[in-house]
Every structure is written in structure tokens, then in C-alpha cells.
Amino acid sequence: MTHSFNRREFMSAASGMAAVSLLPDFSFLSSHLGAVGMPVAVLGCGKRGRQILDELATLPAVEVIAIADVDSGRIKGGKRRAPQAKSYSGHLELLAAAKKDPSLGPNAWFVATPTHTHRAVLEALLPYGSPIFLEAPLAHTLEDARAIVKMVEESGVPVHVGFEQRTNPLFVRARAIIRSGGIRDMIGISAHWHDKTSWRASSPDPAREKARNWKLNPLLAAGLSGEVCSHDFDIMCWLTRKRPTRVMASGATRLHRDGRSTPDTVQLSFNWKNGIRFDHEATLANSFGGNYIDIFGTHGTVRLSDGQAWLFKEDDAATLGWEVYATREQVQNDNGIILRADATKLAKQGKLNESSKMQDSLLRYALKGFLGMVVDAGANPCTVVDAYPATAMGILGSQAIQGDGVLALEADNFAASL
Amino acid sequence: MRTRFELVLAGKRLEHLRAAGEEAIAEIQATELQLSRFLPQSEVSRLNRQSSSAEPIALKLSSRLQKVLRVCRAVQSESGGAFSPMTQQRFDLGGVGKGVALDRAAEALQDAGVESAFLHGGASSVLAWGSDYSTGKPWRVTLPQACGASVELNGSMFCPAALGVSSPSGQENPHIIDPRTGDFVITQHCAVVRAVSATLADAWATALVVDQSFADCSNETTIPFVWKICS
Fold first, then answer.
1. Residues of chain B contacting residue A361, judged by C-beta atoms under 8 Å apart
2. What pLDDT, on a 0 to 100 scale, did the predictor assign at position B65?
3. Between B58 and A163, whose confidence is greater?
4. Does A122 share its domain with A134?
5. Which of B20, B49, B86 sits opposite A5 (nearest CB)?
6. pLDDT of res. A355
């Protein structure tokens, strides 16, 4: 007797299950691209590149035709996720092949190479002309970040920078509430990022360890401030569009005393002229609490945490119209109004009380934003100009940590072009 | 997967081993994010949801999930349906999840050049290669005391040795369903399977609890064991 799951069995599976409307809908890909599909290439097969490959592997009508990495050891992990893709020893080899045979060239690029290589990679890719998904931050120095902004602007090629909160439906909702006065006047932001990992990359070849561990080299990366905190800084930049005037910062190595010169624990405090402050604490020495962000206002606080968001109102805050439909839950000592993307739609479907957690990964939403821009004429969710201020904050924060701990910030620091 | 995974890695470069271990753990976490039917964002959940859609749509499965389903399908066929990747008409890869996670963790460790490792998930799925750093001999797993037997896992870096154990479930807490009948399996048999991959070992261990007739041999001690060696 043999058993197998056939299509009928498959189609009848879970017939009683309800569709979850919060999931990013990629059906536009099939309707626009049809059976032909869109060939794409992923540059960089490290941890982030592999995550991108995992997501692309399940998207309809997107075909990873090429992967590239200068580190041949990384290619193996990429090939496991995209076995049909042709592999190259870097973007230059891939570009040369595409020049000889255009069928080998992609219609979109995903750049997940180390931050310090972004400038050189973009220099090579932009003349090719296809849209680019560039991992955040833009660069590890202000000089490189400005050069990237300049060359992208001059090329006219759409480049989406992967500051993911901009495509996070929960944050889009929270931002709308904040901008419409839901917490009234902003007091400040507090961000917390704890992840107990060494931040090291392994290598069977000791000679390659240094290159793979570029994040631990202060000459090649802006440390936790640049690589991690900048994602949260972008929230502030997106919310207020105002630039800070001062940063106080400190860093220490509390756990990973393995010869690294990049601190494993940092605290940064950015000040704005109007008294608003952004405090960020990040550590690789402890994992409690994970990642969350509190945005404080005189009438309430918004917390974004691990795919969930709440609004905590002050007692004297006026009632917001939509509140009556909202569900509440206790979060520590406070009663929070659960923020949901698509709340109106869910209410109509009678699903407002279903899971308040975001239904998909931030990366998947970011990919939807990028692919929507590429094939569906959607707006660019985060241009290089948008990404510049948060990138600059990350770099300047790192400079403060490496230097005297305090840095006065000039308007020029945040000018994407000088 | 609501279980504890442990990795024992042997080698001289401590920082390198820690980094390799973290990459392996990341693979285990990614496997859960892909295979769990309880997480709405998992590929398996997407598959189950799309399968219930009123309007048929094209499905694209990742090559990694296809690979898992191919192994499941092979064991399903060879075991006469005693193992199935579906429960109550939904894809449910809980029977092989730990094994898949271990196989992928092993790939990450082997990419990192770790020459000797012992990994387990929930003490029922085991994968090892190289030798026990404390004895210099192959890794050895002792089965529950009632049996007293131990299994040597003499795998190599390029061909690890896996062990899958599916424990007996009493009447109080049955947890394995016979896919052929839909009934919970009540058995006193503990299934032990040696295989070249933890996915295969897990799948066959589940199948053997359901149907002992596929066992290579049995060991009738206090806890009856059935054994199978898969190549």
C-alpha cells in the first residue's frame, strides 16, 4: 500500500481555516509577471543574504537566477536555498557574464554584501540599470553614504534601502496615529535591543576570518550604533524629519573579550533642539527583552515590540474615535490598546480579537515594498535620501563612542550632499 | 519547537566554535520559522492556508521545503503510510522538525569546518560526527536504563550518523496518530532508528511506533525496543 498527498488531498486540507488578511499579498507578482517571472540576483550569501534567499524562494514569479559572493565558502549556503541559480565569485564576474549574455542578467538586484562594500557594489551595478534592494545602513562612513546618494540620484535607478520599519504595517499604523496627534507632543524615544550573540562569523579558513568579521572592525563598520541602532534611528527620522544637535554615547565590552575593539554594549543619547531625546541601549551580552521601542508623548506612549504594537494612553488624554473598536490588553502594569494594521478590514471580518501579532517577518514586508515598486509602479518605501539621516546618526553615534563620548552635531552632518 | 537543543562542538579555536554554534542555532530557529504549523508566518502555515483558499492559486515551495517533503514522501511510501507529513488534512511536519533542524545545523557546522560535533534536540533526535573529545572514541549514546544498550555514532564530517528515538506513549498521553486510521497510537514499543540523516531517522522512528513490522529487529527488555538501520 502506498500513500501520497495528492492535489485533491492538498486542496481540501484545512478547508475550514480562515485566511489571515494581515499577510503581505504577493499576488500582484503573478498578475504582472505571469508565467515568465522576474529573474533576480542576490549579492552576498552571508546571514542576511541567506535570509533574503529563503524569502525569495517562496515568492511567486520571482526567480533567483544568480548568486554571488567573493567568499566561496558562503556560496554553499546560497546554493542550498537557490539550487537553480548560477553562482559567481562576486558581482563583477556576474556583470561580465551578463554583458556577454544578457539572458544571464537579472531584472532586480538584492545587495546583502558587507556595509563597507556598498559604495563599490553600487558603482558597478547602477550602470546596468535594474532596480536595487540595498541592505541598510547605506554605508559605514559619511563620505561613502554621500557618494552613494549622489551616484544613485544621478543614475535615476530606483534603489530601496532596507530600513524595514518603513514597510512594517504596524509601524505604518503607529506612525499615522502619532502624526495625527495620538500621543500629542513627543517627549522622546527609548529603544532597547538585546541579543546575546558573539556577532562573529565562523570560517573554516583562519585567513578568511578577518574579512568575514568586518562588523568587528571599527575601520569597516560603525559597530552596534551603525549596524543595529540605525534601524531604530530611522524611526525617529521618519517620524519627525528633524535632525539631532548632540549625541552622548558610551560603549564597553562586557562579555566578548576576544580581542575585538568594537564594544559589545553601547548606550547612545541623541538630543534635539526642542528638548526631545532618543535613548538607545544595545548589547550583545544579554538577550532579555529583545528589541522594543517606546515613543513617549504627553498624551500617550506607543510601544513597538517583536511584531506587536500598543498605544498606552494617559488618563487625561481625549478619546480617539477608533478606540471603541479596539481591543486592549495588560502589558506589565499598563493597559494597552492593541494596534493592528488593517484594523477596519479585520473588524468587518469579525477578526479583531484574533492574534495581535504581526503575521509575517519584517523582511517579507520589505520585499513586498521593493517588488511592489519594481513591478507594480509603487512608491519607493525608502530611498537613499530617506536612508541617509539614520545612517549618519549611526555613524556619528559610533564616532562619539570611539571618541570623547560627546559630539555636537552640525546641520552639515545630515546633509546628504555638501 | 518547544524543546531544548544542545550542541557539543570540539576543536581548538574557541571563538570560531562559538560563532559556528551560533550559526547552527540560527539554522534551527530558521527551521522552526519555516516548518512550524503554529507560526502564521511559517512556510508550512502559508501552504496550509493557501490550500484552503477558495480560489486555486499557484504555489511556490522553497527548494528546502521540497527536499523535506521528498524525504517524508519516501518514508510514507516505504512504510505503507505508517508515517505521513499530514495530520487531519493539514501539513504537519512535527514528526521530523527536530531532525530537519539538526540536519541544517550540521550543514552550517560543516560549512564552518567543525570536525567533531554532537547535537541533539529534545534528547530524541541526535546527530554526530567525529569523535568524543573526552575519550577520542566515536560518540556513544546510552538508551534509557531499562534497556541499557548504547549506540555508537561513528559518522564522519561528510556523512554524519543520526539517531531518532520515538518513545512509547501510554494511554494517559498518546501523541502519535496512525495516519492510516486517524487514531492515537497506544504502544509500549520504543523505536530507535539509525540513519544517515536526522530527518530520515525521525521519520522512521515515528513510523516504527505506529507499525513495528518494518523493524529490522526487536529487543524485548523492560521497555521493548524496535530497531531499524536506514542507509
1. 33, 41
2. 96
3. A163
4. yes
5. B86
6. 57
Q: What is the pLDDT of residue A376?
A: 87
pLDDT over 70 (residue B119): yes
Q: Which three cell numbers mark A324?
A: 471603541
Domain limit, last residue, from A134, A165, A196? A165
Of the candidate ranges A81-85, B32-36, B71-75, B169-173, the one whose mean pLDDT is the lowest = B169-173
Q: Name the band, by pLDDT with cuts 50, 70 and 90, for residue A2.
A: very low
The larger pLDDT score, comparing residue A30 to residue A334, is at A334
Complex-level ipTM beyond the 0.90 threshold: no
Which positions in chain B touch A3 (Cβ < 8 Å)? 76-77, 80-81, 84, 179-180
**CATH code assigned to B5-229:** 3.10.520.10
- Is A158 found in the same domain as A174? no
Phi/psi of residue A278, nearest 5 degrees: -120, 110
Among B15, B58, B81, select the one facing A1 at the smallest CB separation.
Answer: B81
Boundaries of domain holding A112: 20-165
Write the pLDDT tens digit of every residue in A229-258: 999 999 999 988 889 999 999 999 999 999
User: pLDDT class for B214, splitting at 50, 70, 90?
Assistant: confident
Name, of A20-29, A73-82, A327-336, B158-167, the range with top average pLDDT: A73-82
Please provide the size of chain A in residues.
418
Cα A310 to Cα A296: distance, rounded to the nearest angstrom: 12
Give the chain A residue whose CA is nearest to the CA of B107.
Answer: A77
Which contiguous run of DSSP H or E holds residue B15? helix B14-35
Q: Which of B25, B33, B51 is the mutation pick for testing A, counting most A CBs within 10 A?
A: B51
- The residue in chain B having the minimum alpha-carbon distance to the alpha carbon of residue A357 is B40
The letter for the amino acid at A56 is L
Q: Are A416 and A388 in contact (CB under 8 A)?
A: yes
Q: Establish how many alpha carbons lie within 13 A of residue B20's alpha carbon, considering only the half-sphere containing its beta carbon.
A: 29
CATH code, domain with A343: 3.30.360.10
Q: Which of B23, B104, B109 to mutate to test the interface with A (most CBs of A within 10 A)?
A: B23
